[in-house]
Specification:
With 265 residues, this protein is α/β, with parallel strands linked by helices. The chain is built from 8 helices and 12 strands.
Length: 265
């Protein structure tokens, strides 16, 4: 065999190795919405917040024992649910786990639970002669229960939950549904505070109740990626961070709850 042929064979062999290595390095897309106080998206489309920090730690630890690429992408929630949710190798942050969603995703770990309440602007009289209007983000887990409670024709749909709360503040709607902690974070991001709102009754979402915010993978995600993430979740650093995250959320919510009382609707 001539040297030229040997060099050619070696070249093709190296190409095969390179291609094989490339094929063994799947790509994970981490998607998330603007959902303060859990995570936010800045003007440069970069994510911030406690759940982003936790997800970055989870990915870093997973990469210690697995070879894959990961990228973070902030998007409107409706786009995530209408597009990304149907593609493999997607990790969705801060998704509410409900009975309806449960079979359609692979659930990794829970990061928050909270009671939903109905809210109005303090001191603003309710309208006379028409039904109450409520704002909610498109494709929210609360959509079906909100339709049942307020009526489908009385819903104002927004791109995200912060915009929905902003609609309440501006008087475009009369009600908003959310947890104390989530409402507080969204108000702060909008330049407002809790004293501007009145917490009414607990929101009954029977049949559509959330089991809390979780990190979830889309179906048909590469088993290699799922195994790497599940292994990382067992790492003491990651588990400690997850427990601390939940405790901080719960402590903040208890502190906020202590300053408000529930009024009848």
């Amino acid at each position: 065999m001539s040297k030229q042929i040997m060099k050619l064979c070696l070249f093709f062999y190296c190409c095969l190795i390179a291609c094989s290595a490339l094929a063994e390095s799947p790509r994970l897309s981490v998607v998330f919405e603007h959902n303060p106080p859990f995570q936010t998206i800045d003007a440069n489309n970069k994510g911030h917040g406690p759940i982003i920090d936790f997800a970055e730690l989870l990915i870093a630890v997973a990469k210690e024992n697995a070879d894959f690429k990961a990228e973070f992408n902030g998007k409107p929630w409706a786009r995530i649910m209408e597009r990304d949710a149907y593609h493999p190798n997607i990790l969705i942050l801060s998704m509410s786990k409900t009975p309806q969603r449960e079979p359609h995703f692979t659930w990794l770990t829970q990061v928050y639970t909270g009671q939903q309440y109905i809210w109005k602007v303090k001191g603003r009289p309710d309208p006379e002669g028409r039904q109450l209007q409520v704002a909610v983000e498109r494709n929210a887990h609360k959509m079906m229960s909100i339709k049942h409670h307020f009526g489908e024709d009385n819903i104002h749909k927004s791109l995200n939950s912060a915009q929905a709360l902003h609609a309440l503040l501006k008087g475009r709607v009369d009600r908003f549904v959310g947890t104390v902690f989530a409402v507080s974070g969204k108000l702060k991001s909008l330049g407002h505070d809790m004293n501007e709102l009145q917490r009414l009754t607990k929101f009954d979402d029977t049949g559509f109740a959330s089991q809390g915010l979780s990190l979830a993978l889309t179906l048909d995600t590469d088993e290699y990626l799922e195994a790497a993430l599940r292994k990382a979740l067992k790492d003491p650093k990651v588990e400690q961070a997850r427990v601390k995250l939940k405790q901080q959320f719960e402590a903040s919510e208890r502190q906020l709850m202590a300053g408000y009382y529930t009024n009848p609707q």
